[in-house]
From TrEMBL:
GO biological process, one term: DNA-templated transcription initiation
InterPro entries: RNA_pol_sigma-70-like, RNA_pol_sigma-70_dom, RNA_pol_sigma70_r2, RNA_pol_sigma70_r4_t2, RNA_pol_sigma_r2, RNA_pol_sigma_r3/r4-like, WH-like_DNA-bd_sf
RNA polymerase sigma factor 70 region 4 type domain boundaries: 141-189
Pfam family, one: Sigma70_r4_2
Family designation: Belongs to the sigma-70 factor family. ECF subfamily.
Name of the protein in its database record: ECF RNA polymerase sigma-E factor
Gene3D superfamilies in the cross-refs: 1.10.1740.10, Winged helix-like DNA-binding domain superfamily/Winged helix DNA-binding domain
NCBIfam families xrefs: PRK12513.1 (NF009166), sigma70-ECF (TIGR02937)
Keyword S-adenosyl-L-methionine among record annotations: no
Domain RNA polymerase sigma-70 region, residue spans: 41-107
Keywords (A to Z) from UniProt: DNA-binding, Sigma factor, Transcription, Transcription regulation
SUPFAM superfamilies per UniProt: Sigma2 domain of RNA polymerase sigma factors, Sigma3 and sigma4 domains of RNA polymerase sigma factors
MF (Gene Ontology): DNA binding; sigma factor activity
Length: 203
């Protein structure tokens, strides 16, 4: 029965329907006045975007504020993602810029601009995928504590990979960081999180 339902769903799903459209096509539809296209975009990306902001800022109130500012920026913008940039990369770039703007406005230290010697802080534990590391956490608070223990540059790369679902090349472009540096940051973040979360499971 489930196979039959799936077949019927595919049979009647039109490639022209908003739900079947790419993010970029939905953005065009929204700019042309299709409000339902925005609803689909929001539903697709709201969870990952909010988790990225919460993990990077470490403050729910700030994450909420920047989350809303990000979507308002998108609503007000008339710009379409350019070149090889995807909608998702563009959306997370807006969010990252809004967060940095907030830090600057309030005179806060900008941790994304801090220098960090990754070789000194390297951990030899075997790495795991971001999704596997997230599943190791016993609860959201323990995961948050583990994430906040990471250097901010490493935490950002991990969050963009885990919640933004961006590949390493996209992360390098978004953060304006060499690809090899992005790879190193992700590897060290995975190693440290794996160790911290494994310790949580054993205690």
């Amino acid at each position: 029965m489930s196979r039959l339902k799936g077949f019927i769903t595919q049979l009647f799903a039109s490639s022209d329907s908003p739900a079947a459209s790419s993010d970029e096509a939905l953005l065009v539809r929204y700019r042309e006045g299709d409000g339902s296209a925005f609803e689909i975009l929001y539903a697709r990306h709201r969870q990952g975007l909010y988790r990225f902001l919460l993990g990077l800022s470490g403050k729910p109130e700030l994450a909420d504020e920047v989350f809303q500012e990000t979507w308002l920026s998108l609503i007000r913008s008339t710009i379409q993602p350019q070149g090889r940039a995807t909608f998702r990369t563009w959306l997370f770039q807006i969010a990252r810029n809004r967060l940095i703007d907030h830090w600057r406005k309030h005179g806060a230290r900008q941790p994304l601009h801090d220098s960090y010697d990754e070789q000194i802080h390297a951990i030899s534990d075997e790495a795991a995928d971001p999704e596997q590391l997230l599943s190791l956490s016993l609860d959201s608070q323990r995961l948050e504590n583990a994430l906040q223990s990471l250097p901010t540059d490493q935490r950002e790369v991990f969050l963009l990979r885990a919640h933004g679902d961006l590949d390493l090349a996209q992360i390098a472009s978004l953060t304006e960081t060499p690809l090899e540096t992005v790879k190193s940051r992700l590897r060290y973040a995975q190693q440290k999180l794996r160790r911290l979360l494994a310790e949580e499971v054993l205690t």
